[in-house]
Task: inverse folding
């Protein structure tokens, strides 16, 4: 038995080493010269083959090679940071569908933490949003299936399904002494990326819920509509990015370019490879897929100078932070609200063949003035002191294995800019001390519906309008000189 195990281990070791050498593993991974390239990690590979062989021979049930290798790939990627992942055929297809703005399910942006599904943000106008699912909720059961032990991909598959079918989510929420149960009815999620309305003559409101392939063009249509509807020249524009989880980078560049001078630096990235070092500017080559149709040319000239206020909160992440940071650094817009999520890392989709891929973190985002967004976020010019639940909101810096800020001397967490909330008297619920399958659960019927952004009861929007009308908007419209790095 021992001889067979050693022979098997040597075969696997040889296969892995051969593949790694054929891919020029050490040189590609580090982009270093041959003189300083790291050698293959022989001892670690030997340990891997020994574990592989022991599972094949001794595990209680037979396990296929494909499953073991796939799980090993999963482990390599999920162990790096919360956003790197292996995408099997279904996950890769769902990613492609999601960026086009339509998919089936509940409408939740999620991550994995300690084996449980953690809600980053419910997507506006979806079953999850309307049911009262909140950022930071920890999903511990899907119907009668415990989440512990499922991969994130498996959990997402269970949450998705045919429209009009229901699913029970059992969640634990900070501040609650018992688990909450939500019954959600699945729907075809059609995300309206851009919403707009004329608050009153001269004052427009534009909300971006997610950055998709058509976001830039839809934004232009919304701006054109607002300018036509207003019976007086535009005096102020509110750009609402609250609870916008991000999306496509070119969409963020397009939105920024709509308000900034041509060729202004929007964002730059820095990583270990040459491909990861980019400067993205407000010019067509960085936001257009079809260079023959520059939709920004249709913009009314006044959009470059109309006073602006950008609204953000702890649910504003990734692409929305890029936009807020660019407008803030160029002094094109006042940023109002609470500290943003802090998701400032670049994920590159690398196809592997057979319709699978890996999503790998390859760089960090930096604002035009050189501030790293990662694990810190964008600090508003005007903090919303009245915001409820923002001190308890989940942020990038709260995620396990989150990537560091990358700037020496800078805070790793953006929560420092938010006032600490008093601790609740009740003992907090954690995955370690709750057993929902045996304990009492609390129904969700008494949960308050989420506030509607852009409505007459939107306090932050009211603050923005007051700011405009009090005559403080003169400084908002000024644009600073272009910043280069």
Result:
């Amino acid at each position: 038995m021992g001889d067979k195990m050693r022979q098997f281990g040597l075969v696997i070791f040889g296969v892995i080493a051969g593949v790694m050498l054929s891919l020029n593993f050490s040189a590609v991974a580090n982009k270093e010269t041959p003189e300083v390239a790291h050698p293959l990690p022989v001892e670690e590979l030997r340990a891997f083959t020994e574990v592989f062989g022991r599972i094949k021979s001794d595990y209680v049930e037979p396990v296929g090679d494909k499953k073991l290798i796939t799980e090993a790939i999963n482990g390599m990627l999920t162990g790096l940071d919360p956003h790197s992942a292996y995408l099997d055929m279904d996950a890769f297809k769902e990613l492609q569908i999601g960026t086009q703005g339509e998919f089936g399910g509940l409408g939740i942006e999620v991550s994995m933490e300690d084996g449980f599904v953690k809600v980053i943000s419910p997507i506006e106008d979806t079953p999850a949003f309307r049911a009262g699912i909140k950022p930071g909720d920890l999903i511990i059961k899907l119907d009668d299936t415990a989440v512990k032990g499922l991969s994130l991909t498996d959990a997402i598959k269970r949450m998705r399904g045919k429209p009009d079918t229901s699913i029970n989510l059992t969640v634990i929420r900070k501040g609650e002494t018992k688990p909450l149960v939500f019954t959600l009815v699945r729907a075809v999620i059609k995300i309206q990326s851009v919403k707009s309305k004329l608050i009153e003559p001269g004052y427009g409101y534009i909300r971006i819920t997610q950055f998709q392939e058509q976001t830039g063009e839809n934004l232009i249509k919304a701006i054109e509509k607002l300018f036509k509807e207003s019976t007086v020249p535009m005096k102020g524009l509110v750009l609402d990015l609250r609870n916008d989880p991000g999306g496509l980078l070119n969409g963020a560049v397009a939105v920024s370019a709509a308000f900034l001078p041509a060729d202004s630096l929007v964002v730059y990235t820095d990583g270990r490879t040459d491909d990861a070092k980019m400067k993205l500017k407000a010019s067509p080559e960085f936001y257009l897929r079809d260079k023959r149709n520059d939709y920004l040319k249709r913009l009314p000239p006044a959009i470059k100078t109309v006073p602006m206020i950008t609204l953000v909160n702890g649910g504003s992440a990734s692409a929305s932070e890029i936009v807020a940071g660019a407008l803030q650094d160029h002094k094109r817009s006042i940023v109002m609200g609470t500290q943003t999520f802090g998701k400032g890392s670049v994920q590159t989709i690398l196809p592997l063949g057979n319709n699978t891929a890996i999503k790998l973190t390859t760089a960090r985002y930096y604002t035009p003035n050189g501030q790293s967004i990662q694990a810190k976020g964008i600090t508003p010019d005007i903090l919303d002191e009245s915001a409820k639940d923002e001190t308890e909101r989940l942020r990038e810096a709260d995620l396990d294995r989150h990537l560091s800020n990358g700037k020496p001397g800078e805070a790793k967490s953006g929560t420092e800019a938010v006032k600490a909330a008093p601790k609740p008297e009740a003992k907090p619920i954690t995955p370690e001390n709750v057993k929902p399958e045996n304990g009492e659960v609390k129904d969700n019927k008494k949960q308050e519906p989420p506030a509607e952004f852009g409505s007459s009861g939107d306090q932050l929007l009211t603050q923005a309008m007051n700011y405009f009308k009090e005559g403080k908007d003169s400084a908002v419209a000024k644009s600073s000189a272009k910043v280069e790095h």
